[in-house]
Structure formats: structure tokens, C-alpha cells
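Pasting as-is:
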Amino acid sequence: MKKIITLLCAALCANVLWAQTTFTVGNLIYTVIDFNSVKVSGCSDSATSLVIPPTVTDNNSITYNVTSIESYAFLYNNRLNSVTLPNSITYIGEFSFYWCTNLDSIVIPNSVTTIDDYAFSGCSSLRSLVISNSVTTIDESAFHGCTSLSTVTIPNSVTTIGFWAFRDVKHIIYHGTASGSPWGAWNMNGFVENEFIYNDSTKTTLIGYMGDNTNVVIPNGVITIERAFYKNTNITSVIIPNSVTTIGNNTFYSCSNLTSIIIPNSVTSIGEYTFYGSGLTSIILSDSLTSIGKNVFS
């Protein structure tokens, strides 16, 4: 009996030990989850590029599987510009990369099932995102504020998408079954060609622009423009072809550097808030206009 009690005490002490253990290897800080697993809980102040390994060995020569990114692990880390995740990761915690404003690309490996609340929110430099087919849950505001993301393809494996998960992302492509709260992307699905996003393959309704050009020439054949340049602070001038008859709501909303635009005589309608917050100092409107929405030039 004494031997059994001693073994139990030893096991309990070991259990407490690994539950509290944190150690550092290279630039990464790990926290022990159990006898087999650790989570990444942070990095050194000097780290700008991280390659997270699938396994790690501590100072006691114990090897663990790296299975998750801890919540708040890299919160407000504006030094990070590159992170490589291993195929051992199954969970990316809430706020884990929150406001990592210099992070420009990440691949979600084919092991992750859950991307928690606000995981990449505020990553305004993130331009490239690959989500693997293993992911089933993308929680609330996971990519909120990733304004540099031009287009994201969400695999059909994803069945739960949280409120505003992709708010301010320019365009997402998703044909799965998730439903519920609005996800916040500027545009959904659509037809993409030469950095322009159209409502469908007829290319008559322009709903988005993914390019980096400051001077944009809208292709001939477009009839309607809807919200396509919303909050695009990169563009400085836009040429609209004579095929366009309608400029919809919020099309150039908050385009603060837009100083020049040519509106052809073909345009008969300009929607609400179209040039709200733009950088225009003057504009010529044609006699063909029959409708101008509220707060167009506010």
C-alpha cells in the first residue's frame, strides 16, 4: 500500500510539474499541456520570422508534440512578418496573432480544425492566406481588419463561420453550408479576371478590385459598379468607360487618396455615400444624371 501511495504522489507531483512548465527553445516559448504535448505561447522580442517545428525537446531531453498556438501568444507583435506553422497544429487560439500588423503571409496547415475568435484580427499587412481542408470552424472576427487580403478561398470543410469573421476582406469564395451572422467580406463568390471581381461571368457588374495600381482603368463593358473600391486608399485616379450607367452605393467610400475621376455621360445614377470621405477636390457631373443618392460627397 505504501508503494502504491508513493507512486500516486509521484504521479501527482509530475502532473503539477508539467501543468506549470514553460520553456524556451530558440526564439519560441512553449507551455507544457500534458506528457506528450505543448502549445506555443510566445517568442523572443527580436524574432521577426518564425518556423514552428512539429516537435520540440526541452532541457530535460523530453520531446513533445507541438499541437496548438496559445491564446494571446503573439498579441500586438508588430515585429513578426513571417510565420510557418507545422502540420501538428490543430488549434489556433483566440487573439493569438491579434494586431500583428507586419505579418504578410500564412498557410493554415492541413491539421488545424479551429481558428478561434480574433486570431488574425488586425493583421493589416496580411496579403496571402491559405486555409486547408481540415478546418471546420472559423470563429468570430478571426480575420477582421485584414484589409490587404484581396481574395480568400474557404474550403467546404468549414461548417461554422463566426460573426464578422472576414470583415474588411475584399473578396471570399465559399460554396459551403455555413450560415448565420454576416461574415463581413466586401464581396462573396463572383468571377475574377485581371484583378477585377465581377458579379458573374458576363462581367457587366463590377463588385471588387484586388490590384495595387494607383491609376485604375475600368474595363469597357461594365454597366454597373457596386462598392468595388470601398475603403481603397491606394487608388489616386479612376477612368470609367462609356458603358457604365450606374455607380452604386459606397463605390468609392473613404478612398482618401482618390483625387481624379472621369464620369462619362453614360452614367445616369450615383448611389448613396459613393464619394464619402474621398480625396476629390472637384468633379464634373453630366446632364444625363437623373439620380444622386444621399451623402454622396459628404
